[in-house]
Amino acid sequence: MVRLNKVLADAGIASRRQADRIIAAGRVRVNGIVVTEMGYSIDPTKDQVTVDGQMLVMPEKFEYWIMNKPAGYLTSVGDPFGRPTVMDLLPPMKARIYPVGRLDLDTSGLLFFTNDGDLALALTHPRHLVEKVYQAKVKGIPSQGTLKRLAEGVDLEDGRTAPAKVEIEAAENGYAIVRLTIREGRKRQVRRMLRTVGHPVVALHRLAVGPLWLGPLAPGKIRRPTPEELDALLQLKKLAIR
Ligand code: URA
Known about the structure:
By secondary structure, the chain is an alpha+beta fold. The chain folds into two domains: about 1-55, Roll (Structural Genomics Hypothetical 15.5 Kd Protein In mrcA-pckA Intergenic Region, Chain A), CATH 3.10.290; about 65-230, Pseudouridine synthase, CATH 3.30.2350. It is about 25% helix and about 30% strand. The protein is built from six helices and 17 strands. The chain has helices at about 5-10, 15-25, 115-125, 145-150, 190-195, 225-240, and strands spanning about 1-5, 30, 35, 40, 50, 55, 65-70, 100, 105-115, 130-140, 155, 160, 165-170, 175-180, 200-210, 210-215, 220-225. Strands 7, 8, 9, 10, 13, 14, 15, 16 and 17 form a nine-stranded mixed β-sheet that branches. A four-stranded antiparallel β-sheet has the order 3-2-5-6. A hairpin with a 2-residue loop joins strand 5 and strand 6. Helix 1 (about 5-10) packs across helix 2 (about 15-25) and helix 3 packs across helix 6 (about 225-240). The chain starts with a strand and ends with a helix.
């Protein structure tokens, strides 16, 4: 149950104090009946509220969460075989959030969750070209020519990949850490790109999706976006809806 003045405030009608005055003035009806009582509470999911005869539209409560997905968890809201999924790592919450995009079972790193469908679409639709940054540990050390191929486009079974950014972060004992930034999101794309140029991936980790960077977050843990990240997400959504 939620106090009526908070319901009015949440719907953007007025501040809580102004809402109290609107209520006292008899301008608010709950299920058709005028309510002037201070502190009256309603169930916003069931009760109909009008102000001056206008129905209140309750804004949805959107949830946004960032997870450091560990390898070994499926990106899925359920698995018919009972294997562990990323949903098992979420604490109980009222909102039905779901993962945006997909990381392979054996990939770790940034996975974003929300119940905001417009934002999910803005982040995943190929039209919006959102950058995803991956860190891949690969066998062998790619040459300059190989890096150029990766950057310009690699021919995969489902067509040539779009231009990417690529750099070697470290190389040691016959393995390299490659940072690859792509705007597409085909199935197992990073693994296929690197295998095709002769450097199979032994471990894959996602560092960033659009404005979101994983930062220091332990595997299996979640955090909310910072205010700056949230601003950037909502900006992206606004641009995408237009
Ligand atoms: N590319 C891959 O190959 N795997 C992922 O999980 C994500 C991108």
